[in-house]
Amino acid sequence: MNYILVENRYEGIDCYLTDKSVKEKDWVVIPNYDNEPVCVQVVKLINQYEAITKYHQPLEIIDVVDMKSFRERQDASIRKRVLNDKMQEKIADIKMLDTLEKYAGKDPEMASLLIQYKELNSPTGAIPEADTE
Question: What is residue 5's three-state secondary structure?
Fold first, then answer.
């Protein structure tokens, strides 16, 4: 038997037992004061002596919650948001370049600024010298 301490926001820290494999920070389902199932996180694993001497008769947990699929979905969602942000940034750069090219054909000073902008955004990232006219 595994004896675990869980933190329940209504009842504080309490001791439960299970024959299932659990680790700290795993989520388990326990009955609350109305015998309704609630999810709580394992705070600490303790030995049988400590469980029996410090806590009242430990109750058995209902089940261990498998958080793997939830965590995978969360990670995929985060990767998707990061990729979306990178794409939006690239789209903004392309739009800016198109706008600058449009105005560079009308104004020689804008053409000079466009050249500087392209050099700044080149893979080498070289900073062009300012024109001294």
Answer: strand
Sheet with strand 63-65: strands edge to edge? 59-60, 12-18, 2-8, 37-46, 27-31, 63-65
Residue 75: φ, ψ to 5°: -65, -40
Residue 105 lies in a domain: yes
Domain coverage including residue 89: 70-120
Residue 128 lies in a domain: no
d(CA 40, CA 118): 55
Q: Which tokens sit at 66?
A: 């498998």
- Model confidence over 25-76: pLDDT tens digits? 889 998 888 888 888 889 999 888 888 888 878 888 899 888 888 889 999 9
Q: What is the 3-state secondary structure (H, E, C) of 59-126?
A: EECCEEECCHHHHHHHHHHHHHHHHHHHHHHHHHHHHHHHHHHHHHCCCHHHHHHHHHHHHHCCCCCC
Specify the pTM. Answer: 0.55
- The total number of structural domains in the chain stands at 2
Q: In degrees rounded to 5, what are phi and psi of residue 12?
A: 80, -155
